[in-house]
Amino acid sequence: MTDRRTARRYDLSLPVLIRLPVERDAHSGKTRDISTRGVYFVVENNLAAGAELDLTMTLPAEVTGGTEVFIRAIGKVVRVEKAPENGARQGVAALIQRYEIVRNESMKS
């Protein structure tokens, strides 16, 4: 099997808030790895391949060396699998179509 990744991937466990444009509720999950082009996260809610996502990931102050930083991303689910750690959770691979980095002060408004 050939690795088709075009961007470097970082093993990074971050809290992620997942919103689907058709739902009002947000779902919480945890990233496993992330790159500028995609993210893999684990979530308890069922998501389907092709679903559009609005993601907010939090980089804690310990990682940034200052204040919390948020990564807001728009993406699409490309693959869903049962997470091996716990059968009730789902592993989700998502393509990031666009993202922005927002400092904590900007999120308060």
Describe this entry's structure for a reader.
With 109 residues, the protein is mainly beta. It has helices at residues 61-64, 104-107, and strands at residues 10-11, 15-19, 26-34, 38-43, 52-59, 69-82, 90-103. The longest helix has 4 residues, at 61-64. It starts with 9 loop residues before the first strand and ends with a helix. The relative contact order is 0.22.
CATH superfamily label? predicted glycosyltransferase like domains
Q: How would you classify the quaternary structure?
A: single chain
Distance between the termini: 46 Å
CATH names the topology as: Thrombin, subunit H
Overall mean confidence score, pLDDT? 86
Q: Strands across the major sheet, in which order?
A: 2-3-4-7-6-5
Work out the radius of gyration: 14 Å
Structural class: mainly beta
